[in-house]
């Protein structure tokens, strides 16, 4: 997945420099220590060279006496001084520096390890990988009378360096762990933004009109989100205008055809019949009023659907708004011989929504319930807390909705004939209710039993 690809990429970016730095530290440390050791060995060789020169001045070319005196000095040194040098986390108890003293012909006259004394080293080539050497000639009166060689095992040096670098192992592992965590967190942050952007885009493609692409950052991802949002707004606006024009032209055909037919009949023989004339004029008036309602409600819906969602700065009590509508619909229901009941919770029901929009939503649902409820039955409005939400419900004992028509009830211009009046509405009331709910962070749903009634439920998050 993209998450793991980003994770591996960022982990590599963090680990490779750390690995390179660790390698450079080791190489640099080893090189610096070897140079420092060589400088000390040169100083040691210089001291021994001075001692050899003095012994040569005293004993001349008698290499046996020079060798014996050097052996005595070295033996006294080991017997007199106990070596216990503390170096970092370990103790040195012996001298690991080896001294070789040569006569003018290259023969070894003194060896601190007594391994090659008397051997000819004039053509010897030292193994630099195993030992490091520092060799100085011995001059007496401008003449080379011998040489002094100081050597050290590189294995012991590298062991010392390895022990020193082990002290950096734990901090290094912690740095690696921190790099891993940082890479994972960074990849999770980036992929979360990408997946959120993709999820919102899919919801927009599915038709959710209240989804907006957030611009969380000022980075390239934020720029991408803003560009997609601008494109969505332009495409949505174009599609909205096209769809609205299509729906409007379709819905206006019926009342306009009725008006035109009535006008043509009035122009004919029916115009001389007073009763017929009144009938056709009433029909024209009714259709004009219906056109006015369609245009008015369409404008309301357009304003709601095209406005930029902005939450009101303060909350309102949904219970108080519902309670205010109770007496109004009590009278209207009574005029239709329908029983009306309001069940409003006593505690506050705070929601973030414009009060006029909430009234419009409840009015549309209650008008729809009265329109499709026959006389002698009942309608109920309830408002209550439901967990962390406010639940508003309009329940009726109307004719119900056929199951295959349930997915269409919130579509624009979807309408059926009222069983009580025989008239059709504009088909925009429930569409407006849905748009108001979604524009304010809520949702609306319907349940219906054919012949027994319907229940419309609106849920808003608690403010």
Write the layout of secondary structure elements.
Elements: H1 2-59, H2 63-80, E1 85-87, E2 90-92, E3 98-102, E4 108-111, E5 131-140, E6 143-153, H3 154-166, H4 169-205, H5 220-267, H6 274-306, E7 316-317, H7 318-335, E8 339-344, E9 350-351, H8 355-371, E10 378-386, E11 389-396, H9 429-439, E12 443-449, E13 453-461
Parallel strand pairs: 8-10
Antiparallel strand pairs: 1-2, 3-4, 3-6, 5-6, 7-9, 10-11, 11-13, 12-13
Helix pairs in contact: 1-2, 1-3, 1-4, 5-6, 6-9, 7-8, 8-9
Describe it for me?
By secondary structure, this protein is of the alpha+beta class. Among the domains are: 2-169, Beta-Lactamase (2-Layer Sandwich), CATH 3.30.450.20; 312-461, Heat Shock Protein 90 (2-Layer Sandwich). Helix content is 55%, strand content 17%. It contains nine helices and 13 strands. A five-stranded mixed beta sheet has the order 8-10-11-13-12. Strand 12 (443-449) and strand 13 form a beta hairpin. The mean pLDDT is 77.
- Based on CA atoms alone, the radius of gyration comes out at 50 Å
SSE succession: HHEEEEEEHHHHEHEEHEEHEE
CATH class of the domain at 2-169: Alpha Beta
Q: State the distance separating the first and last CA atoms.
A: 38 Å
Strand order in the largest sheet: 8-10-11-13-12
What share of the residues does DSSP label as strand, in percent? 15-25%
Task: Tell me roughly what share of residues is in helical segments.
Answer: 40-55%
Taken from the alpha-carbon principal axes, the silhouette is: rod-shaped
CATH homologous superfamily of the domain at 2-169? PAS domain
- The tally of beta strands, per DSSP, is 13
Mean pLDDT: 77
